[in-house]
Design brief:
Quinone Oxidoreductase, Chain A, domain 1; binds zinc ion; alpha/beta; 2 domains; Rossmann fold; six-stranded parallel sheet; single chain
Length: about 350
């Protein structure tokens, strides 16, 4: 049913003008077309993958980890005005071979990446196709709800990718304690049990401390060797390593820590990985695989988990800013001493 609440004609939006500078401009508030929803954005989380837009500039309004409330509905939609929820990054077609099997993160006819190809969640309002909106329980605060996306979604998907090839995981190594690494850590604990040993390596003491607080065994690569810490904890190696660093050195260290039958899941985009196929893969039957974002359907599973574990997950959020301080938020975030940083409107 088509309905739009009273909204202003224009809105102030941040302009990513490049070279690490964010200005402000005006834009008309968009109207939802057929099949679309108008969302009043309440929170959007900063992400390492915004780096390109922050330094190179962006023609669209960035923000791909948005939570908000529906304030307008286009023809043919069924979502009610007033419904809170989050926005799935990828506008999947729902009809291709991948989508039909539920692989919505591998859609062959993808129509948009909200926050990249189309305006995202740093504007006060955004329009999305209805299929990417995930309605949520109103008890979840909007800021915390953004964790359903890259934190729980991407983190949980990486763990599930590892489980596809290794069902008896006894220890995990995460290569990087940035927000995605913390998300993988949290989801490892929630999906595999709080007793699962999870090693997290990084160079940033602030992030390692946060990982420790969330139940990880920290490895400070500035002064420790990963294999030494893993052995000191009583393990010969790990069964799954999740690389969130995107660094060749980090992936190599992860590979060297893997047991026989171990699996390396690459989540962080970045540099290359060099393999000595005979010794690294064949002899020990190891697996290397990629993990990209997550399937829309995983939101329902993660929604149930966030309702149960909100205080634990909330620890990942360390800073909150209004949109008027977005410049400061990004500078702090890229400098490294943060967990997840939110813009709340
Ligand atoms: Zn992100
Ligand atoms: Zn598709």
């Amino acid at each position: 049913m088509s309905q739009v609440l009273n909204t202003p004609q224009t809105m102030t939006i941040p302009l990513f003008v490049g070279q690490g500078k964010i200005a402000y401009g005006e834009k008309p508030v968009p109207a939802p077309g057929p099949g679309q929803l108008l969302i009043e954005v309440k929170a959007n989380a900063l992400c390492g993958s915004d780096r390109g837009q922050f330094y190179d500039g962006s023609a669209t309004t960035p923000g791909h980890e948005a939570a908000g409330v529906v304030v307008g509905t286009g023809e043919g939609t069924v979502t009610a005005v007033g419904m809170p929820g989050v926005v799935f990054l990828m506008d999947f077609c729902g009809e291709c071979r991948s989508c039909k099997l539920g692989f919505t993160n591998q859609c062959l006819g993808k129509r948009a990446d909200y926050g990249f190809s189309h305006d995202g969640g740093y504007g006060p309002y955004m329009v999305v196709n209805e299929n990417v909106f995930f309605p949520m329980d109103p008890s979840i605060p909007f800021g915390e709800a953004t964790m359903l996306l890259d934190i729980m979604g991407t983190g949980g998907h990486a763990i599930k990718r590892a489980l596809q090839v290794h069902q008896d995981i006894e220890a995990i190594l995460i290569g990087g304690a940035g927000p995605i690494g913390l998300g993988v850590l949290a989801m490892a604990k929630l999906l595999l049990g709080s007793g699962m040993p999870v090693f997290v390596m990084d160079f940033v003491p602030y992030r390692l401390e946060l990982a420790k607080q969330m139940g990880a065994i920290p490895i400070n690569l500035a002064e420790q060797q990963a294999n030494d810490v893993i052995r000191a904890a009583g393990f010969g190696g790990v069964d799954a390593a999740i690389d969130t660093s995107g660094k060749t050195a980090g992936r190599h260290t992860a590979l060297q820590a893997l047991n026989q039958r171990g699996v390396l899941v690459c989540v962080g985009h970045g540099q290359e990985l060099n393999l000595d196929v005979s010794s690294d893969l064949i002899a020990a039957e190891r697996t290397v695989l990629g993990s990209e974002y997550f399937r829309y359907q995983e939101l329902a599973e993660n929604h149930a988990l966030i309702l149960e574990h909100l205080p634990y997950l909330r620890q990942i959020i360390t800073h909150r800013f209004g949109i008027d301080r977005i410049q400061e938020a990004y500078e702090l975030f890229f400098q490294g001493d943060t967990g997840k940083v939110l813009i709340e409107q």
